[in-house]
């Protein structure tokens, strides 16, 4: 299966709170899992990424948690800020450097 | 930084027109991709190219073709535009292992077919 399922579709978080976005996949041949952040009027930009042999990767306030046995991974945004308001996409790398993207999560952080 | 430039931000075309969307990258990358982005559907791969004159179909190639005559330029062609091709089109260039295997995307072309 080539799908990556992402949830929730939208998320509202108070400033300072934790934002959590989840993704699940079926294809065990996927071998790299990035998250992209997209602001209105811009293309998606690579935010953080993880290999399947690592269970967690942290960069500043952004953390990816990866559960290989469950075929799930999630993005945690700690101390969420209004500037984090954007659409977030998870993705999984298939052969030929092709990425299969999730359907996106629109995050709004309230000031 | 890698720059991926899409020639038009907004386009309005008539049904049946042949439409060309242009994408240029400045880092001599081999792999380039065209996606379309629709609300609730995420990004779906239309076509990709791994070298000059080389191309492969993605998940939704119907109604589209591509051209890669030079390494830096990857063009998406709508052979006969239809209203269901109204969408945001994103071009991407693969940055490789030293950049977390990631893509650099262009800013997108919002195409409306009337």
Give your account of this protein's structure.
Chain A is mostly beta strands. Chain A is built from no helices and 11 strands. In chain A, the strands form 2 sheets. In chain A, strands 2, 4, 5, 9, 10 and 11 form a 6-stranded mixed sheet that branches. A 5-stranded antiparallel sheet of chain A has the order 1-3-8-7-6, with no helix packed on it. Chain B is built from no helices and 12 strands. In chain B, a hairpin with a 2-residue loop joins strand 6 and strand 7 (54-57). Chain A binds chain B through residues 2, 6, 9, 32, 34, 36, 41-46, 49, 89, 93, 96-104, and chain B through 4, 31, 33, 35, 40-45, 48, 50, 56, 58-59, 90, 92, 94-95, 99-108.
- Global structural class of chain A: mainly beta
| Low-pLDDT residue intervals, each spanning 5 or more residues of chain B | none
Q: Give average pLDDT of chain A, whole number.
A: 94
Largest interface: A-B, 24 and 29 residues
Order of helices and strands of chain B: EEEEEEEEEEEE
What can be said about the biggest beta sheet of chain A?
6 strands, mixed
Largest sheet of chain B: 7 strands, mixed
- State the helical fraction of chain A: under 10%
Helix-residue proportion of chain B: under 10%
Order of helices and strands of chain A: EEEEEEEEEEE
Number of strands of chain A: 11
SS element count, helices of chain B? 0
Strand fraction of chain A equals over 45%
The rough form of chain A would be described as globular
Contiguous uncertain segments of 5+ residues of chain A: none
Distance between the termini of chain B: 37 Å
User: How big a fraction of the residues of chain B is strand?
Assistant: over 45%
Q: What's the overall average pLDDT of chain B, rounded? A: 94
Quaternary state of this entry equals heterodimer
